[in-house]
Amino acid sequence: MDYLTNLTLQDSIKDIIDIIIVSYVIYKLILLLRGTRAIQLLKGIIVVVIAWVLSLWFELNTLQWMMNQMFTWGVVGVIIIFQPELRRALEQIGRGRLFGRTFTEEDQEINRMISEIMKSLMNLSRRRIGALVVFERQTGLNEYIESGTRIESQISAELLTNIFIPNTPLHDGAVIIRNSRLMAAGCYLPLSENPFISKELGTRHRAAIGMSEVSDAVCVTVSEETGQISLALNGMVLRDIKEEDLTAKLYEELKAPDKTKTKRSFLKWRRRKHDG
Fold it and tell me: Which domains does the chain have, with CATH numbers?
């Protein structure tokens, strides 16, 4: 009896693992097809399957014969129709990319994002157009994303620059970035109440400092009065930061998982820049 119980338990565990693996594979395949024309064809196949089930249920012999003929040749048809998607899936499996991104890909994505953002920031700085860019890290910023206008797009220098052009609907507020995606613009952030903040700093800088006080976000501001770029992190701000230094620091901070380590490194880096 114990043997039968153990055997049944082992079979149940195997079935659960089997279902989990199959579900995950189907999920990844759906993600692969999402946004392509193949998803519409997939919906058509689902309709055909439903028609076949109904033909069996109501014993519609003619319809059932037609469905059987379609299934007989359907395998060949699916291979022909989904050829681009199947090729892409096989290529990604060969590169080990179907079930997750490699560290190299993540680095490339961060580099591309920082490059686009720096182009925009330098352009805005030269033209003395105010801007506030917030990078979400471990602390979720959904509350602040919902206060703005949802965009959820790939980042480009042109898009970011256009958002902050004066007198446009979204220019007065912050842009929030999550995982290399521009999530929202025109977002409202909490203002810092630190009495020791310089009186020279305006609302935009106080919002950047305030956000860095309540979260681990990295905030970059462009002053519309001077064109200077500032970096706010962990309630501290470094003003008039140079392009090369900001690029290096953004890459370092967006890759740093440890908040304590990040704070210490920022203090050291800030002290070194002031001493230099």
Answer: 2-94 (no CATH), 103-275 (3.40.1700.10)
